[in-house]
Amino acid sequence: MFTAVHLIPTGVGAAIGGYAGDGGPAAALLAAVCDRLVTHPNAVNGAQLLALPPNGLYVEGSALDGWLAGRLALRPVRARKIGILVDRAVEGHPAGSLEALHHAADAVRSVHGVPLAGWTLTPRPIGVRLATGAHGHSTGAVEDPEAVLAGARTLVAAGAEAIAIVADLGRLDPAAEATYDQGGGVDPIGGVEAILSHLVVASLGIPAAHAPLWPHDPAPPHPVDPRAAAEHLGHTFLPCVLMGLARHPSLVAPPDCQPGDVLPGAADAVVVPQGCLGGPGVLAARDRGVPVVVVRENRTAVPLEASALGWEPGAGLHEVANYWEAAGLLACWRAGLDPWSVRRPLPALRRL
Asked: Which of 60, 236, 270, 334 has the fewest Cβ atoms surrounding its Cβ within 10 A?
């Protein structure tokens, strides 16, 4: 079974996939030429919308890195029960903020039938702080991680098999928010969202994803870049997280693998944006001999180039212009074809 990875790191300002689910069409294209596409929340989450292809596996970012590194196997599920963990800071929000979350959760239950274990507040506000990294990527910190884990453990005790985290991220810088809405800059919350989900996955070994908590604000709509439009459909981004986590594979230690599990090392290719070669998953793929495809058109704020890693094109690294070309390359590999056999001129056979 040909398995490709569609990876778009969060908070790096990716031209494709750096906004609200706008990496979805690329995911659908790549999935069409694969038997199975492994991707992660940032690439397919779109607030009220989810762009996960039918043959896609929705895998939290640090778990995806662990699978690529050979530390985890993935066990597909029909569905899993999700617990919703709400930052206690919601108690200081305007009336309607918590009700908007209830509406979103009940809508996903009634329309998609997603099983939910229930919801709870963290014992204390978790204290998220947003920040910007040296290269302009978004990052941040969680002041009280134990409050997150205590709330998550309460949900696990009630039968939750995955955790949807809803954290208060405070007020965004108006200038940065306006720039993002108009298609510039980076997602200012992406980095800290990854920190929150990584915390739960690493500590509890179960899937997690984050949806931001904003004060309920029925402000009139204003024009935004099409890539950010999904974030302006409602008052909560919870639906995509609940729909995605319901299909998140179980995380299995390799000694416990069963038939049907997606084994460590099962990736046949990894597709990433320009400049995103330094992540642990990509480096693990390189070290394990998995081909890495870099899409030049998908530019990011991260300046890391292959040459800085001593990695030359052709040594497991394949640079393409866009996702059209990436899909063509995957289709060749899936068919067992030498990609150069469909290009002209056809190089002569080299004498060794």
From this structure: 334
